[in-house]
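Workshop exercise sheet. Pairs work together: one partner reads the sequence aloud, the other fills in the structure field after running the prediction. Swap roles for the next sheet.
Pair: D.N. / O.F.
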Amino acid sequence: MAGSLFPRVVAGAVLLCVFGAAAEAAQVTRAIRNVQVLPAQGAASAAKAGTPVPDGAALRTGPDARAELTFSDRTVTRLGGKTILRVKASARDLHLEEGAVLFHAPRQARGARIATGTITAAITGTTGLVERFGTAYFKLLVLEGTARVFVPKLGESVLVTAGQMLISKPDARVLPEPVHFNIEHLYRTSLLTRREFAPLPSHDAILQAIRKQKSDPKLLETNLIIYGRGTLVNLVESTPTPAAAKPPTSPARAGKR
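Structure field:
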């Protein structure tokens, strides 16, 4: 889709989450490989399905590990490998210290925020991914719905809608405008949406967002891809098919979806 950036997020993606009013925080509903609960005080302990994550605690995943948290309002948050996500259910806040998270916050949820560095994202009725790597970058991608990204106390605020991505420094004081990415490609390739996890409650809404994006005549395909985590944009040369190598018999609108 033209004039758009279509990243391929293959590794676990980051993101945020929303919780409801329950102060009991969250419960681990999927643990793949090395997953630990880090209490506010005390030693870390191994986590498995059914393990509670109390208010103030964090969930940490090892390399190649993944995990899923489910809240009482049916908000779902999935962690990629090498991720630390701290839960503050009493304030309905999440703090992404490092790594990648996918979130789904249902419309009936009271809303929530995820903070990382100086940036906070507020969402409700939204599904997306968030990544943070040290002081290098913060990245938010919205699969369906709308997220509001803002810098508290500065009044800086940006709306990020379905099919848009925002990349910034975690300590940003000014936010850039979002760019477009290919929702379908990300949804199909992310490790946090594969068969080892149940389908997201927002699956139908994501498919609707994909159809809407494909029908937008203003968007054209590019060969720009972000592999896995990070912000490095790669230019990929497309391999022509035998049919594409032949002269077209009728006018073609190359790149239109």
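Discussion prompt: Helices lie at 183-189, 203-214, 242-245. What would you look at next?
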